[in-house]
Model the fold of this input.
Amino acid sequence: MNRRKLVALSVSLTLVVSACHKKAPPTVAPEPMAQPPAAASNSAGNNTAPPPAATNPMGANLDAVAAGRVNTIADRIHFDYNLADIKAEDRSRLDGKAQLLKQFTTVRIRITGHCDERGSDQYNIALGMRRATAAKDYLVQAGIDASRIEVASLGREVPIDAASTEAAWAQNRRDEFDIVAGSQSLRAP
Amino acid sequence: MKGAGIAAVVLLVAGTRLAAQDSVNVIRLGVRGAPQSQPGLAVVSGPGLDSVRAIVRRDLENSNRFTMPPHGADADGVMRGPIDANAFKGSGLTWLVELQPAINGVEVKLYDVATGLIRQRATMAADIGGVGDSRLTIHRVSDQVVGWIGGVGIAATRIVFKEREGKDGGIWRIDSDGANMARVSRGGITMTPAWSPDGSSVAYSEFRDGRWTLYLQKLATSSRVAVPSSAPGDSYGAAFAPDGKTLAYAHGLERGAAIESVDISRMCCAHELTHDKRFADNVAPTYSPDGRRIAYMSTRTGTPELYVMDDDGTGAQQLVSSEFEDNGRALATYTPAWSPDGVRVVFARDTRSGARHLYSVSVGSGQVVQLTSSGRNQDPSWAPDGRHVVFKSDRGGRDQLWILDIESGMLRQISTPGSVQYPAWSRVLGNNP
Done:
């Protein structure tokens, strides 16, 4: 985890990439290291805190634009119990990611599949991999080079909500999208 | 322990057994036919052995082989002066265990109460403080007693498991009696620990840089090595072959998960044993005690079901015949664990009502017996005595370790602060744990 955070920091001084699975959807914050997990907003894309270089209006604008792009890429998708099929309502989310990945060709991502606690714990690793691969296949179908997309699975091991409720399970059955390279390029005008 | 107190012992002995059964809500399904009565056994000691006596008493109770007098009964405690086994005649006891201090240890005597004669005796090295890892020396005293009476003692064993702390979770170990919990892994996101057959090492998987990597860790030094796989991918759910030289594990790639095996004596030659098409997932291998076969879970027909194959991957066939939901879908079946005597495999299966229970299948006949009746239960692992199974269950509200004696139907909980996953029971641990 820490290592992944460092990777994210090294590619961008001002953007917070959701490199940690424990966090809510990624947001822009002035100081990445100072952002506690609990402070992360649930409303992806709406929490655009002022950038540190506020003296440069143009720079601030670019930061906001880049943050919007990061949020589009990092926006989670969700799954039905025991299934790895892309839901209809998530297609537009994946289309948005594909569009950005086409535009910014140095960006590389990792898709990590997650499950709720109800399946068999070991089998959930395989199921999470299927969920990650389903999203990857969608993006590849949309024209993205497969070599730019890593996949991983955390099964049920890292839930967003550890409660044993339908709402928690629905949140936990998800794919997370992390930018592992090229996030700097998202600051282009 | 004079004559006046003996009748009371008899009544209380009967009472404690019934109470223990009531408190656990277990259904006695009699895999082998539950015994109708257990021989009575009491543990008494000389002064200064309070800790030792308490540990041995609990171990023998946990063996589920004996009916024991209640705490504080005349035949249960620290005695002053010489112990006269003849005073216990007619008490309903079959066995009396006497513990006395000895140099660097304990003198153990086993009396046949009917004759008043010493049946067995030994002086055993033991750390009578009864704290920390040296508790194992006292557990060996308990196992010696069970061995004298003709059984396999499992007191000198430990269980490894994943303990969830918030959203993280490390690998921990705990003594068979639920004491002495200690950390094994250093942190990070981990899963599926397994004991090496010699008890010296634990294999487990840790998520690093986007992959589940299999590690082999020496318990004495905490040093560990990454186990190579055939290709970059997720390696998890490892099982040791009985000779300790081979690990089988699930190896996950984008096209699905295969069972692989790797030679850990040379750290080489990892290769796939299952060869399925895209998106069949094969996980959770368990070796037969002769090492020649592997049972595992596969989704090759669509639903998780159990199969068995030869250890080279040939001859795969379904192990448990399917049960179906009303809509025709097979009920998912998970996490097989092959018994030490090779006769049966315990596994978890979803039920039509949405529960998940442990079952036992006879490898020879295919006959299936249900073992649990409440909560969601999975991840069974056998004790070396071939009659106790540890598993994860949420019957108490959160996922905890539970131990079922399949012969008596008795059940006990091992409590930990967090919630647990992936219990795995060690063999009987040797002198250098």
In short: The longest helix of chain A spans residues 121-141. Helices of chain A lie at 2-11, 57-74, 91-103, 121-141, 166-172. Residues 1-55 of chain A have pLDDT under 50 and may be disordered. The CA atoms of residues 20 and 112 of chain A lie 11 Å apart.
